[in-house]
Amino acid sequence: MKKAHRKNFESTVNKSAPRRCPLVAGPCNLNRSGPWPFRASKRVPFAFIMRPYAAEFQDMEDISSEVLKSIGSISARNMSPGTVPEAGTQARMACVVAKDESYVGAGLCQICELCQYAHFGIGELTGLNPNVVLEVGLMFALAKPVVLTLNTARMGLSEIPFDFTGLLLVTYRNTKELREGLKGKVTAVMAELRGRKLL
Q1: pTM over cut 0.85
Q2: CA-to-CA distance for 52 and 119, rounded, in angstroms?
Q3: CA-to-CA distance for 120 and 99, rounded, in angstroms?
Q4: Domains of the chain by start residue, with CATH
Q5: Is the dihedral of CA 26, 133, 97, 102 positive or negative?
Q6: CB atoms within 10 A of CB 116
Q7: Cβ atoms within 10 A of the Cβ of 186, count?
Q8: CA distance 103 to 93
Q9: Strand arrangement of the beta sheet that strand 120-124 belongs to
Q10: pLDDT by residue (tens digit) across 137-188?
Q11: DSSP secondary-structure letter at 152?
């Protein structure tokens, strides 16, 4: 990420900070001036992967990482510590999943911080996991792009309890459809972020 683009992005993080934290009933206490909080991202832009932790959703996380790599990005998960990407590579994008990050403090603070620092999110709606719905809602509240995924072999569009018209939604019945759908939506999101000089 170019230095100027990082500065633009960090400025949007500071502006998007919640005014009131439901945990402390006052201003948000997250330290935005300290070190980059997420080890998996290695200070590169990242997509926050929001999914239920049941084993059946591991494919969604793996395919999201694969898609980011296939469109000129690299996943921090596959980088050994201290790895420096080659000069001239396209914008790198890491995948960060909350369960993979060590965190001290309230779980809601970790999720809030992930949402604030993420460039965009990918959220699995299948099963309407309450944690995922909360994370997606927080990303929307912070005006972050979110690509939603829904396995229509397991859950119909009519079962979603909110209007998803105009949202970035990938419906799929198998991993091939998920991969192809994510490629198109993630490419569009990354192009938008580059256009806004946030990547």
Answers
A1: no
A2: 20
A3: 18
A4: 3-13+40-78+90-195 (3.40.50.450)
A5: positive
A6: 22
A7: 24
A8: 21
A9: 94-96, 46-50, 120-124, 146-151, 168-172
A10: 999 988 999 999 999 999 999 998 888 778 999 999 999 999 999 999 999 9
A11: T
